[in-house]
Amino acid sequence: MISDSTLNEWYPIAIANREITTVPFETTLMEQAYKVDVGPQGWVARAADGTPKQCIERYGHVWLCPGTPEKPIFNMPEADQPGRRLVDCGVVRVKCSPLRAVENFLDIAHFPFVHTDILGAEPHTEVERYKVDIREDDDEIWATKVKFFQPQAAKSAEGGVMTEYMYRVPSPMVSILYKTCPPKPGEWDVIAIFVQPLAEDLCDVWPWMALYDDASSMTDLIQFQQTIFLQDRSILENQIPRKLPLDPRMEVPTRADMTSIAYRRWLKKRGATYGAAMEVA
């Protein structure tokens, strides 16, 4: 049974650009079908039985709530900052739990081994101690003071640099990364993934970026980000168990997994268990 907390979240279902999205269109959320159209008042969604569902446009995507939203969609002010390039990176279908996709995005330790010579490289494999908080006022996870050496921190970067990160999880199937901005010191590049759960072991992942980068073409920016995520896909599709374990006895964490541990505890507390393995068999 899907919990109310899961049904009452916002989920991405399409890129909002009407030149890309055929309207009306059909989509799936958690094994349920929806028909989506756009009218004078904006986007309109209906379940298979004709029940209307709330649907909005934000961050270059169309979002749908299959239940009753308990709060507005998360705020990301960087999307409205002048000078940033907003980059929709398409969609990648992944045969894994949607929660696994988010957790993988939060993982730093795999950089040298999966994204070799781009986001990491040996012998720079140590994850320095960082800080993780669950901010009760906003009900969000934040990981701060994260630092890692990267051979190519961004498409526009030349040479390796010690990159600083912040990770944010504002809802169970959204993760946002703030990272050192090579062309504009003092600012943060923003990279996010918006995850559409199709089933408990299948999802569509929509990468999105808000960057200060006037040098790279839009095509190069999209290809760079898609290259990174496609390297992750083979790892995600071979993880066992396929669902994200919430019982701490199912997997042995390390110090580098602090954000993952916080994410799993946060999900369990919220009752957001769709795509999760709850206990040892």
Automatic annotation (TrEMBL):
Residue ranges of every copy of the Vanillate O-demethylase oxygenase-like C-terminal catalytic domain listed in the record: 94-270
Record-level Gene Ontology MF annotations: dioxygenase activity
Keyword line: Dioxygenase, Oxidoreductase, Plasmid
InterPro entries, per the entry: Cholesterol_7-desaturase, VanA_C_cat
Name of the molecule in the record: Aromatic ring-hydroxylating dioxygenase subunit alpha
Organism, as annotated: Qingshengfaniella alkalisoli
Classification of source organism: Bacteria, Pseudomonadati, Pseudomonadota, Alphaproteobacteria, Rhodobacterales
